[in-house]
Amino acid sequence: MILCVIIYQTGDFNLERTDAVMKCPYCADLESKVVDSRPADEGTSIRRRRECLSCRKRFTTYEIMESLPLMVIKRDGSRQAFDKNKLLGSMLKACEKRSVPISTLERLAGEIEQVLQNEMEREVPTTEIGELVMERLKDVDEVSYVRFASVYRQFKDINTFMAELTKLLEEK
Questions:
Q1: Angle at 166 between CA 165 and CA 170, to 5 degrees
Q2: Strand order in the sheet with 32-40
Q3: Closest CA to 106 of 84, 137, 128, 139
Q4: How far apart are CA 103 and CA 89, in angstroms?
Q5: Which DSSP helix (H) or strand (E) runs through 10?
Q6: Along the 172 residues of the chain, how does pLDDT read in single tens digits?
Q7: DSSP 34-94
Q8: In whole angstroms, what is the distance from residue 49 CA to residue 60 CA?
Q9: Residue ranges of the domains in the chain?
Q10: Distance (Å, rounded) from C-alpha 137 to C-alpha 91?
Q11: Residue 64's closest CA among 81, 43, 83?
């Protein structure tokens, strides 16, 4: 659970509060009370019904969590913004002609993005992302796992490919 703490400066000291001062859209008064709160957008935001203490009119506000941009460090050292669609695309390619539902891959991509966001590191190497993908694909479809691993680990010859297959078989 994430708690949003807003710090207001009042005089010579800071006062921490968990409710936001929200200007009434009708009379611009700063005093309102929260009448109702509920999750919105599948739990990614909170919808709040507020009532102005001055004019008694009600209005709705939404509270969303701000996420910091996540940068990916490529093998050549360059950096680019994390793109969940790119991640999903690479998993789709590995699962081509396999019976893996797209909804499963979307869920996996979401899980991986959440893991990366939770680590609080703003820069993540592609190697870490690749390992997270392989970890999840192994449980979903072993053929897709091997396909992804062959591109990700850049197998140079049949021996490295066989070593990965042997490792997979030993884990069973």
A1: 120
A2: 32-40, 45-52, 58-64
A3: 84
A4: 13
A5: strand 6-10
A6: 233 333 333 333 333 344 457 789 999 999 999 999 999 877 778 899 999 999 999 999 888 776 678 999 998 999 999 999 999 999 999 999 999 999 999 999 999 998 998 887 889 999 999 999 999 998 999 888 888 888 877 766 677 777 777 877 777 6
A7: EEEEEEEGGGTEEEEEEEETTT--EEEEEEE------EEE-TTS-EEE--HHHHHHHHHHH
A8: 5
A9: 6-64, 71-171
A10: 8
A11: 43
Place of tokens 């192994």: 138
Write out the two tokens for 1: 């659970």
Q: Look up tokens 């992302």; give the residue.
A: 129
Two tokens at 43?
Answer: 């739990």
